[in-house]
Amino acid sequence: AAVGRALDLSGLGEKLRGRRVLLKINLMKGAPPEKCINTHPEFVAALTALLVDQGCEVHVGDSSGVLGFTDEALAAAGLDRAIRDSGGRVANLDAGPFRRVPVEGRVFDAFYLPELLFQVDAVVSVPKLKTHTLTGMTGAVKNFVGVLPGGSKCELHVRAPHPQAVAHAILDLYSAVRPAGAVVDGVWGLAGQGKGVGPRPTHAGLVLAGDDCAAVDVVCAEAIGFAPADLPLARAAVERGVGPASIEDVEIAGDDLAAHRVTFDRPGFEWKRWRLAARTYYKL
Q1: Quick one: pLDDT at residue 26?
Q2: Going by DSSP bridges, is the β-strand pair 199-210/181-192 parallel, antiparallel, or unpaired?
């Protein structure tokens, strides 16, 4: 019911009606739902079933963060069964074929992306609401890093050696995908993470949807205690004219956000260690 209400209030449900849709979920690895690492199978099933009922052909998938094991991760996380049982089609975004997509970016001038992105009528980001050691928060925009197949994800970190560079690299990718919007699984989110701050599943009780991923992320940030100006990706989006500068620039329908705010533990930042790991893996 909450997912359906979010689709209605945001206008995203009507926008997608009867179309061929790819739901780009967050599949980090084959973890059980209580770990709050991936988009929850029940959330994915609810969204898929609602869109199928609206006459959509629904493809659901990702390229797993565990390189080369997307099918296994989908199965271990319970997502493949949830997708099929709700009438969707499982999409392994590592499986190809791929297309070279030129962009006028700050870091990249082209990406190799799954052909499926360009065979559907609409791509929708369906992230898990989480903090992140690299970008502070991961949401609707950063979720698209998962459309990069296999080891090509590593190149993003190699070519972007500091937080703001990573933010611009992600926005380069975002410009290639041109999504129709986002539906965020913020029922249970993941707070903390990183050096000295353990991963902490945190109940937020939020379902957010909108037709502008950058605006959705600003609302997500405010909901879990971040100022958008604190987040490299939000700052870069404002700089490039693809995101709102503050919550005041976003029209919010539905419940009063102030009544639903919850403070997520901040992540530990580990830039140097991650950069070294990315470089080493890429050279291998």
Answers
A1: 97
A2: antiparallel
pLDDT score at 65: 87
Backbone angles phi, psi at 245, to 5 degrees: -80, -25
Average pLDDT for the chain: 92
Closest CA to 202 of 231, 223, 233, 232: 223
Q: What percent of the chain has pLDDT over 70?
A: 94
Beta carbons within 8 Å of 100's beta carbon, 6+ residues apart: 110, 111, 112
How many CB atoms lie under 10 A from the CB of residue 195? 10
Outline where DSSP puts E strands in 127-177: 128-132, 136-138
- Whole-angstrom Cα distance, residue 123 to residue 42? 20
Helical H segments across the chain, by residue range: 2-10, 12-16, 41-53, 70-76, 79-85, 152-159, 163-177, 213-223, 232-239, 271-283
Q: Tell the burial category of 84 from Cβ atoms under 10 Å away from its Cβ (0-12, 13-18, 19+).
A: middle
**pTM for the predicted model, two decimal places:** 0.93
With both helix axes pointing from N to C terminus, report the angle between 232-239 and 213-223 in degrees, rounded to the nearest 10.
140
Q: In the 8-state DSSP scheme, what is residue 263?
A: P
CA–CA gap between residue 103 and residue 269 (Å, rounded):
29
DSSP string, 36-48: --S--HHHHHHHH
For 100, phi and psi rounded to 5 degrees? -80, 125
3-state secondary structure of 101: strand
Tell me if residue 202 falls in helix, strand or coil: strand
Burial of residue 103 (CB within 10 Å: 0-12, 13-18, 19+) is middle
